[in-house]
Amino acid sequence: MFVTYIRGVIRVMILFLFGSTGEIITEKSGHLNMGTPGIMCMGATGAVVGGVIYLKAIVDPTTANGFLAIIIPMLFCLLFAGLTGLLYCFLVNTLQCNQNVTGLTITTFGAGVFPFVSNMIGSDGLSILSSSFYIRIFPKAFCEANWFTQIFLSHGFLVYLAIIIAVVALLILKKTRVGLSLRAVGESPATADASGIDVSKYKYIATIIGSCISGLGGLYYLMVMNNGALEYNIESFGWLAVALVIFSLWNPGIAIAGSFVFALFYQLPKFISSSGAAAQIISLIPYFVTIVVLIVVSLFNKRETQPPASLGVNYFREDR
Questions:
Q1: Under DSSP, is residue 112 helix (H, G, I), strand (E, B) or coil?
Q2: Number of independent structural domains in the chain
Q3: C-alpha angle 86-91-97 in degrees, rounded to nearest 5
Q4: 3-class secondary-structure state, position 167
Q5: Which residues does 5 contact at the CB level (< 8 Å), separation at least 6?
Q6: Tell me: the pLDDT tens digits for 201-243?
Q7: Would 320 be classed as within a structural domain?
Q8: Alpha carbon distance 148, 279 (integer Å)
């Protein structure tokens, strides 16, 4: 029972981790992208479109090639999420639109496009393609050897990809010149601009890459958590991922542990067979914890625990 519970926690954790890692990278550039839930929806939309295109190309879903069944939906997912991130950045960085309003508009747009497109083109056969996303990295006999391997080594490749992306993002932000420049843009774009850093380029690249990573959360939700079945609940997970960014103090490394904690509470009602008001109260715990973390961070007011200084503030070079 315990093994099953922790395995379920890890499955949900990865969805949070994709969304929060992408949002952290975006916010490090100074863009407060409240459109992350919508971008995750757009990633799922791309996965549906890519999967249907591939299924129609092969005619018989039972003959699907495992590699193509993975790579085509993933490429469309990255394309849709990346283009949505590009749209957001164009609106707030080039046209100087309000970041909060733009982000909420993106969320509304993505949440509406996902059910509209998926219902229009259908999703027959996606459940067959989803089996390719369960391909284990390690041999089956090894994965089932003991409780440790069952919990940590028996998942599909997307689980490990999410953790790798978070670790790489942490190393780039903390240990490389690119990460230093990105953090400088988020802290003080005017100073970064004066030192020769192309502020606009960093904002665009960070937002697009962050959006692509968050979009993978939509792919994961569709193909792994729901086995290819359409379910339009991604937006709620997206808001939890945004809350997790605050909980993790804008640190991808902490986001790994934070995602596990959020998923722990999310799965707890199912594990203890709770229902009704008790289940609802338990599911709200991550939000309450986030509020507590925000209050504590505000009280201590240490620079390393604070968001980027220019977060949510548009930069216009001529205003310097």
A1: helix
A2: 1
A3: 150
A4: helix
A5: 267, 271
A6: 999 999 999 999 999 999 999 988 888 777 778 888 899 899 8
A7: no
A8: 28
